[in-house]
Amino acid sequence: MSVLCRFIRSRAHRLPIVNIARSIGGASTEYFAVTYEEHGDPMKVLEGKTLTFETDPSSLNSNEVYLRMLAAPINPADINMIQGVYPVKLTLPLIAGFDGIGEVLSVGSAVKSFQSGDWVVPNAVSRTSIGTWRTHTVCEEENLWKIPNDIPLLSAATLAVNPCTAYRMLTDFVDLGKGDVVIQNGSNSAVGQAVIQIAAAMGLQTVNIVRDRPNNEIIVKWLIDMGATHVITQEFAHSPEMKMLMGTMRQPKLALNCVGGKGIADILKYMERKSTMVTYGGMSKRPLMVPTGSFIFNDVRLRGFWMSQWNKEHVNSPERREMWHYLCGLVRKGRLFPPIYRTVPLEHFKDGIKRTMEPYTTQKQILVMDKSLL
Ligand SMILES: NC(=O)c1ccc[n+]([C@@H]2O[C@H](COP(=O)([O-])OP(=O)(O)OC[C@H]3O[C@@H](n4cnc5c(N)ncnc54)[C@H](OP(=O)(O)O)[C@@H]3O)[C@@H](O)[C@H]2O)c1
Predict the structure, then answer these.
(1) Which CATH architecture has domain 23-158+339-373?
(2) Where is the Enoyl reductase (ER) domain (predicted)?
């Protein structure tokens, strides 16, 4: 499988399993999907199945779109959803996957926003409309968001969740000017890599904390090459040398927290007075340990961010169009690349799941339905 990083749940997700592929009027009446009927260990509860569409996709309802999925990353939220520990609870059985990209094959008579050949991602208006780990789907027009199809496919496949999250956190919480400093943990995550690249394009400096590991210099080099100003380990952040490093730059106005736990204190003590920490992930599975003094003497502001909620609140907003325009522009300029990745054929999804659940990989697993991506 080659190195590498695309989505949608339709009306068909609870349909009976069939064994023989067939097609009517040029549209496939069956599709392969990664499904689960109960929560638990993804390696045990996920199953690959051939499902059949409720109605023939060659005779779509007027508001429906028929798609082939191209690629879909495996994100921590997907794993948590399957495990049953994600805060959003959906009725089972389900098709897994929140993120990814599809290509429009045909549209119903009343569909105005899409045409054949367009690339689309989930619109996030309805969680029940998603389920991206599949080959084909039929879904309603309102559940799709069109994105440009002149950028590399794997960039497009990985933009909707992680780089959009990075972009919003860098623009919505604090006014940042050129030379200002942003500090983050989990910096080798897909979000962290997007933060580094977008911040560099904005002229910001970044201090990037990663977990220590053998051969850490490889991660350091990767992140520096992406535009990181400094890459340090959690141990360094806790050491007296950290004070010296932070003394060479402006005090951070913004901190981005992917991890939680007690390492938060090592970040907050270097932050500017009235600065903001935005929490978007909880990878350590530990609560935030915030020293009382950070509130009293530094008046620190603790905020949270959830991309799905932002999308719901800004479905057809100028801000959302502007964000996509900006991010696709960075991709075209060679300033924003997909996270370090590995492509995995959809039918080998367990291989991608296993790798995702291992620590210290720094490699986004991307399920691909289009074999030319392998
Ligand atoms: N709020 C939102 O809207 C939003 C949007 C996107 C993502 N997220 C969240 O952001 C986080 C990162 O997502 P992603 O797709 O970027 O992840 P990813 O690429 O899969 O990377 C996972 C990261 O978590 C780190 N990690 C794993 N276990 C850890 C532990 N016990 N302690 C400290 N670090 C640990 C990994 O570091 P190692 O290399 O050291 O293992 C890696 O940096 C997830 O929690 C995800 O749910 C939230």
Answers:
(1) Alpha-Beta Complex (3.90)
(2) 48-367
